[in-house]
Amino acid sequence: MRRVALLGATGSIGSAAQDLARAYPDRIRLVSLAARSNYEGLIRAAEEFRVPRIALVDKEAARRAREVWKRGEVLEGEEALAALAEEDGVDVVVNAVVGGVGLHATVAALSRGKRVALANKESIVLAGELLLSLAKGSGGALIPVDSEHSGVTQCLAGRPISDVRRVTLTASGGPFLRRDPASIQDATPQEVLKHPTWSMGERITVDCATLINKGFEIIEARWLFGLSPDRLDVVIHPQSIVHAFVEFVDGSVLAQLSVPDMRLPLLYALSAPERWGSELPRLPLSELSTLSFERPDPLRSPGLTLARRALQAGGTSPAVLNAADEEAVRLFLGKKIRFGDLMPLVEEVLGAHRPQGTLTLDTILEADRWARARLHEAAANVARG
Ligand code: NAD
Ligand code: MG
User: Number of folded domains in the chain?
Assistant: First the structure.
């Protein structure tokens, strides 16, 4: 039985995790749940899974939750995420919160030697190196939920990284794969949020359209697998059936395939190294005849270029990249900036950053704050101009 703290329980990955808890009542027990402000959704889940403790980051939402829900404890504020993550009665933390705000919970869980099933890729983008050394010191484990990284982990199956020549992550290419870049500058949030193959939260869906999501995933892979960026590739694969390729030093290539359904990598993150039988959708082999792969066009994938630049600059640069993008996406969804402004604004902030070489939690959080403020300054100029 895995006792699970589910952070980000009301989101897209959170509801996939709820599905798995429903499907495996003998193996998965949810012991705590957290979300930002959706107290109704959180209470519904708490009732269904008989969870004694929930947390709402938004204090007003926590107050309302206490008014209507008397069967358990309601924690509040950002600190509550880490508090749930480090509790003694928790074996696995599913971190499915969106944004850099998820970092503290990952740190708290790893410091206590727990397994983290990590959907919150921002944790690794911000602090990959620190998290790995934390896990090493405490006996904790960081298991990726991101489908591509789950694919790589499954292909590696415990082999050492010295056996690997290259890793290739696939990208769907997003909703604008075949559009002329000039024609998407004014794309609306509504158009951007129509992802062709995956159904996901808003931020990651926008990040798929600029391809910066795949850039974050390169950074994620760099730390998770200890591979230098020149051994990490991206290939556009519009069908999202193959999630990753691992080429070994002898020239043999393994790939991991499945239907695009996040419950599959999440299930593996919970069961690994075991495999649990499932009723999840199976891959119809007849569909394999339509698989295609192509090189990303640099003009259509500015986010990929920026992420490689941030990795090269090192230190706090990836944290700056994430924070600037997070704020830019928020402004875009609020219709304050155009789609075409997103990557130039992030680029401006990244370019203005002087990376801090010594990486500590403090320097990372300081860079994160700086980047958010700087992005808003830059965006105000764009809006005025
Ligand atoms: P989502 O927007 O659907 O859900 C986000 C969850 O986080 C919600 O439960 C929300 O209440 C919570 N949240 C939002 N802001 C918060 C805050 N400030 N403090 C605490 N909780 C907060 O997002 P999602 O698509 O489920 O993505 C979650 C994470 O998983 C992201 O890091 C994303 O990059 C990653 N991921 C998602 C997918 C996917 O298919 N959805 C795939 C790969 C990786
Ligand atoms: Mg992914």
Answer: 3
Q: Ligand 1: does its nearest atom lie under 6 Å from the Cβ of 172?
A: no
Return the residue whose CA atom lies nearest to atom 36 of ligand 1: 119
Ligand nearest to the CA of 207: 1
CA distances to 4, 83, 138, 216 from 93, in Å: 6, 11, 15, 21
Q: pLDDT, tens digit, for every residue of 11-23? A: 999 999 999 999 9
Answer yes or no: is the C-beta of 100 below 6 A from any ligand 1 atom.
no
223 CA to middle of ligand 2, Å? Answer: 15
The helix (run of H) or strand (run of E) holding residue 82 is helix 79-85
Predicted structure pTM score: 0.97
Residue for token pair 């050394």: 133
pLDDT by residue (tens digit) across 20-54? 999 999 999 999 999 999 999 999 999 999 999 99
- The helix or strand, by DSSP H or E, that contains position 255, with its residue range, turns out to be strand 253-257
Domain containing residue 294: 146-259+269-305
Q: Strand 253-257's sheet: what is its strand order? A: 232-236, 164-171, 242-248, 253-257
- Do residues 11 and 122 both lie within one domain? yes
Q: Which of 160, 158, 91, 103 is nearest to 130 (CA)?
A: 103
Q: What is the DSSP letter of 231?
A: G
Please indicate whether residue 276, judged by its CB atom, sits closer than 6 Å to ligand 1. Answer: no
